[in-house]
Amino acid sequence: MYKDFYKAKNYVNRELSWIGFNGRVLGEATDKTNPLLERANFLGITQSNVDEFFMVRVASLHKLAAANVTTTDASGLTPEEQLNKVNEKEHEMVEERYKIYNQQIIPELAQHHINILSIGDLDAKQYEFVRRYFNDDLMPVLTPMADDSSRPFPFIANSSLNIAISLRRDPNAKSAVKHEVLEGDQEVKRQESERDTPDMKFATVRVPDIYKRLVRLPGENNFILLDDVIKEYLGLLFPGYEILDTATYRVMRDMDLDVADEDTSDLLRAVKHQLREREHGEVMRLEVQHDIHPWLEEQLIDNLHVGERSIYRIKGPVDLTFLKKLAGMVDGHDDLRFKPYKSYLNPALDMEHNIFEAIRKKDYLVQHPYDDFASVVNFIHQAATDPAVLAIKMTLYRVSGNSPIIKYLGMAAQQGKQVTVLVEVKARFDEQNNVRWAQRLEQMGCHVIYGLAGLKTHCKVALVIRRDEDGLRRYMHLGTGNYNDVTAHFYTDLGMFTCDHDLGVDMTNLFNMLSGFARPPYFNKLRVSPDGIRNFINEKIDEQIEVAKSGSPAMIRMKMNSLSDKQIIAHLYEAAAAGVKIKLLVRGITCLRNDLPELHGNIEVHSIVGRFLEHSRIYHFVSDGQDGIFLASADMMTRNLNRRVEELYPVTQADTKARAIEIFDKMWEDNVKARVLVGDHYEPIDRGDQPAFNSQEYFVKRATKLRKEHTKEQKARRNFPGVFETLTKHVSKLHLKERDGNDGEDK
């Protein structure tokens, strides 16, 4: 029984595994095959990743440790032990990030005449520009905040950039800004003398986030950090005082939203309240520039209540997320960015064709971002404007700030269609955006559901009910990713358009469950968590185990974002021990080890981190010449299987099934951006004499090729319409003849 595999030594701590994933992202910042500005972007991404990690995961551990919880995770660590190990590892990662920034990114940018300058690097023209910029734009916005007997230490907002200041009253009340520079030892002695002055005061200034962190300077591609500009002229904010020391700092707070089940009688109000409350969460991490004066650091530590393990002394600019904006600000240098490309839009799914007529004939599998997300937007757009459409039902987990889908749903409601939208207002860090959209949809006449008590609705499904000539028919889109037209450009996801009858019945039951009290006794083809997906995956694993025990070959292939559920991992261990070959593509958290002797080397794990964020989920089971492939919104994580509403659905049509299998195949062949799991950590793949293969580049090239072929077809239609139509019909007849002669399989 697979419970024998439940020992702590068989599992990797999920938080340390996540830090390992962020390390793989960091590896992209050092990969010389990536264009330089993209490497800088990857470095910025590692910063924003770890910020969210501390705001949620580390915050959760803090709460458990504070409550003296001593139960252990799958790897046998208590919350307190996890906190110590996480902070220890992240301190190492911070050192690595800034080593890359200082020794690689900045010098290499300078070689291309892209410079992030300090005040001391500016020429006279640039310095005058900075002075004017401060006086004209910054100074009116800045607010100095003092800390003394009449003014308590100010509240420091989460993730905000701030400048800590030590100052003293100037007995001579001379100009607050000094431009003279003292020589070496004289300057050191002056600073030491002033720092020891007993009447030293503390103040802080928030760096306004309404301005870009990178300030463009005169001269091509020269920049300076906004906080460096402010530091130079801080004296103007404190007339009659001398500035002794300054230091940039930032705090990350507990930002996890915690809406208790008993609060959900008015979920929207509960979420709004929690959004206000969480702004004042405890400090999880304090970042300060490494040369901060001890007195300033002491003031921050005492007032922000942080322990030593949570203090990060930064050898460079505090908060590297500004690097994510750099590529968009640099003029020219297209060679330092990824080569642009355009997604392919299947003509059957564009606005010039009847999408419902196309879906009636066959299913369509789309792979974003290589296939244009416009296909999904067009589906909702046509549903909104088609007079034969009676109703639209949809789940929204994350959408963009200017979502066209929201617009078309509102349009549909205003045209008298029944529109029901489940907006998950507990979607982490999108809560405020989703609350706003939910209220907007209601104003436009949509019926809005705010999620279920105790569960997050994470499934990505859209159902359109249309009155066709032969009766009512259900048209569907089921996806692995969010209905977000912005992230669809850089998240890889899969979606399927279908009007399959059994799936349509299942979708109706699913929406009835979400909106009412209905609890369907069973689903025909759809699998729904909580419980449904876990049970299904366990059944499929058991089937493969039985096949392997009978002496026949059996294989399990899975692609997901994270693998952390202890029971599923133990079950995979049992399958491997029984002889099932297991191939896993896991982008992020991997709590499974594949070096246990009982597994006989039957578990291989790859992780792909590249230009696009791998977000799709694929579950493929192969045995006795039979295979079933399924797509899902769910990862193999406990929260997805137990505490969320998720969907898993089969891909059965010959061509779509073949394509889904090929997508996994091509990703498994990747030996450029893929790493391979060795025990409890990932290493680069040793491809030996094999040619380099980058799966994401392969899909980009295929999309480009299809787009070019479509463009040629359009030109042929315009120039030789009669000839083209005759040729198209002839080719179609040949294709059908070949297919029918091959038992329905496309050649």
Report on this model:
It is built from 20 helices and 27 strands. With 747 residues, the chain is an alpha/beta fold. Helix 19 (695-719) packs across helix 20 (721-740). The longest helix has 33 residues, at 79-111. The two termini are 43 Å apart. The model is unreliable at 175-182, 187-194, 259-265 and 741-747 (pLDDT under 50).
In terms of topology, how is this protein built?
Elements (H helix, E strand, L loop, with lengths): L13 H17 L5 H31 L12 H33 L3 E3 L6 H15 L5 E4 L13 E9 L14 H12 L5 E6 L7 E3 L5 E4 H7 L8 E13 L13 H12 L4 E7 L4 H11 L6 E4 L8 H7 L25 H7 L2 E5 L5 H12 L3 E8 L7 H11 L3 E6 L7 H13 L3 E3 L6 E2 L2 E9 L2 E9 L11 E8 L2 H15 L11 E3 L2 H18 L4 E7 L5 H12 L3 E6 L16 E6 L4 E2 L3 E6 L2 E7 L5 H5 L1 E8 L2 H16 L4 E5 L2 E4 L10 H25 L1 H20 L7
Parallel strand pairs: 1-6, 8-9, 11-12, 12-13, 14-25, 17-22, 19-20, 20-21
Antiparallel strand pairs: 2-4, 3-4, 3-7, 5-6, 7-8, 10-17, 11-15, 15-16, 16-17, 18-25, 19-23, 21-26, 23-24, 24-25, 26-27
